[in-house]
Amino acid sequence: MRGLKFGLISLLFCFGMASAHAQANMDDVEIKATQLSDRVYMLTGMGGNIGVYVGEDGVVMVDAQYKGLADKIMAAIAELSDQPIKSLINTHFHGDHTGNNAPFARKGVRVIAHENVKTRLAANEKFDQDGLPTVTFDNRLEVASGAASLKLQHYPEGHTDGDVVVWFPNANVIHAGDLFFVDRFPFIDLNAGGNVQGYIDNVRAVIDSIDGETQIIPGHGTLSKRSDWLRLVHMIEATREEVMTMKEQGLTEDQAVEQGLSAQWKDWSWSFINEERWIRTLY
Ligand SMILES: [Zn+2]
After folding, report:
1. Which of 42, 89, 184, 227 has a CA positioned 20 to 30 A from the CA of residue 260?
2. How far away, in angstroms, is 33 Cα from ligand 1 center?
3. Which residues have beta carbons under 5 A from ligand 1 (an ion)?
């Protein structure tokens, strides 16, 4: 079951948009909510995890998963609050986080993202342009909700060039976007401004600003803590060291793939970013 699900997620990643085949599978997706504090929830379904803040006068959500799930996500949020959804924040531009921007925008939800996210979505003819961000920013933004506000910080050149981490108010909770894949090789989108060293630096910068009790909604995987995130950084640094050594020994990229990483990293491999793809990213 687990393997099957990863397989499907991988397929969707590869093709970006939900194909007819994948669309049929959307019917089976269940959106599940987990309460993290008085006003903060994490929703899982298919695609990047969703964060929900139930404010005094409206709901703010972070990320929107794959296209085709908007009705289910709206229904799940309606279970948590009678308030209207006011804002949707995108942690970055990938389709498994922005796929339902348009149906939410058509309901009057304002879409907020880093300016590079808007640029990339505007250039993608497969993206429903109704879902383009209407509020963009460069470095930091505070999104007011009642008397509180969510804090958004841009981190350049990590997973993409438009990554944003979100701090929820009055709760020790953050949404890390795809700067956090739990116990899996991360996708670092080198074709969209992603960078391995930047990814490490950005994760370390966020980790320095949180504590051991902070609840972290990862882009992909289960609710986590700082120690889980450090495990990812250590893996990236150690595997990069292995690939650098192979490179220094004169191995080509293909030869490095053939030699492989040491056995301790086997469990980090998954269908979308398997060991080969991770080695090629590092190389
Ligand atoms: Zn992503």
Report:
1. 227
2. 21
3. 94, 178
Kindly state the tokens that stand for 181.
Answer: 């894949």
Question: Residue 105 C-alpha to ligand 1 middle, in angstroms?
Answer: 21
pLDDT at 61: 98
- Reported as a single tens digit per residue, the pLDDT across 77-120 is 999 999 999 999 999 999 999 999 999 999 999 999 999 999 99
> Tokens 């969510």 sit at which residue?
150
Which residues face 177 on adjacent strands? 218
Residue 57: which region, alpha, beta or left (left: phi > 0; alpha: psi -120 to 50)? alpha
Backbone angles phi, psi at 93, to 5 degrees: -90, -10
How many structural domains comprise the chain? 1
Among the listed residues 115, 123, 91, 113, the one whose alpha carbon sits nearest the alpha carbon of residue 191: 123
Residue in 242, 205, 243, 245 with CA at minimum distance from that of residue 226: 205
Cα torsion for 61, 170, 211, 199, to the nearest 10°? 30
Distance 15 CA to ligand 1 centre (A): 13
Listed in sequence order, the DSSP H helices in 133-219 are 196-208
**How far is ligand 1, taken at its centre, from the CA of residue 262, in Å?**
26
Is the alpha carbon torsion for 179, 181, 182, 186 positive or negative? negative
Which of the four pLDDT bands, split at 50, 70 and 90, describes residue 14? very low
Contact, 163 vs 155, CB < 8 A? Answer: yes
CATH number at residue 277: 3.60.15.10
pLDDT of residue 103: 98
Distance 248 CA to ligand 1 centre (A): 31
pLDDT at 24: 60
Pair 157, 201: CB distance under 8 Å:
no
